[in-house]
Amino acid sequence: MPLPDVERRTRDFPRPYAGRGTETPGNETSAALGPTLTPGENVSAVNQWGGLRVSTTATSPLAGGGDFDELSEVAGRVRRAIEQVIEGKPDVVEVAITVLLAEGHLLIEDVPGVGKTMLAKALAKSIDCSVRRIQFTPDLLPSDITGVSVFNQEIRDFEFKPGAVFANIVVGDEINRASPKTQAALLESMEERQVTVDTTTYLLEAPFMVIATQNPIEMEGTYPLPEAQRDRFMARVSMGYPEPAAELRMLDGHAADDPLANMQAVTDGQQILRLVKTVQSVHVSESVKEYAVGLVGATRRSQELRLGASPRATLHLIRAARAAAALDSREFVLPDDIQELAVPVLSHRVLPAAEAHLGGRGAADIVAGLVSSVPLPRTRRD
């Protein structure tokens, strides 16, 4: 089935790093395959599936950050917009906003029908930026995600056609249905915010966030995410079943129409970049850093875990704690921020030992136990 036509606009496409490939001239566009791009060209495309704009523009980080009043006001608008769609899950929504402001990626894992994809799409639609959704299937190829170089007969040279990862927010639905080879296509983009195709590296536009969903109980036709990919997600959340009152409100508000259809963006990508700068200015004392290192280190020494959390987990924990403090209108991180985020940030990275499985203790239970056992830092001035 042919893809929809694309519209060409003038934008700066991210140039490859010097010495990492050869730029080729030409900027032809193929309606059958999508936008044609060569390194350094000025081309963007409009995705007409659902009216979501697809951009391939690289944006340099802003020189200055915003302030905490702006952050609280914008975060409140995003929170209210999402809660119009997701009923009765304020804690899950808060973690999603925290991961967004901490420049992380979010894994939503739960049973079918509880609103995983709805949450991902609601967060993406609340921001006026480029969004692409990838429905992961067993026949999905890595080039469908990263893009592919196609030979152009007119200019007799190869041209790069960007894949679905070239967007500000990438929604990966049922990510564990794709093969490990296809899942691995996201590794570079999630960690380094870039894509390398045929020895040429393309920078991704900022802000960049991957929101993936997966079903943990259905094993037929699925491929478990490898530890290397799970470690790249800053946090994992589970939706859980709604309370009866929230489910009744859902019937009243969602039974007749799609709540996403009436949802409007309440901020944009440039404003999110300013808020990210504000989050990065939040102070973390040495004692809080030592507490985070001690908590992550406890996962490596625990007899209930056969795989502890990585140093990347410590970085993600501190970044998420900064965002949580900023959302609370604080310019400094408290140990409470580390404790509240320990389970969503660490539990998907660790592997319980066989004895813990036999005892009915999951990763979240073990991490929660470590939080209660690791002593809090003493109050001191840095």
TrEMBL record:
Residues 105-234 form the ATPase AAA-3 domain. Residues 1-40 are annotated as: Disordered. It comes from the Bacteria. Residues 1-14 have a biased composition (Basic and acidic residues). CDD domains: AAA. Signal peptide: none annotated. It holds the Pfam family AAA_3. Residues 298-357 form the ChlI/MoxR AAA lid domain. PANTHER family: METHANOL DEHYDROGENASE REGULATOR (PTHR42759:SF5), MOXR FAMILY PROTEIN (PTHR42759). This is MoxR family ATPase. It comes from Kribbella yunnanensis.
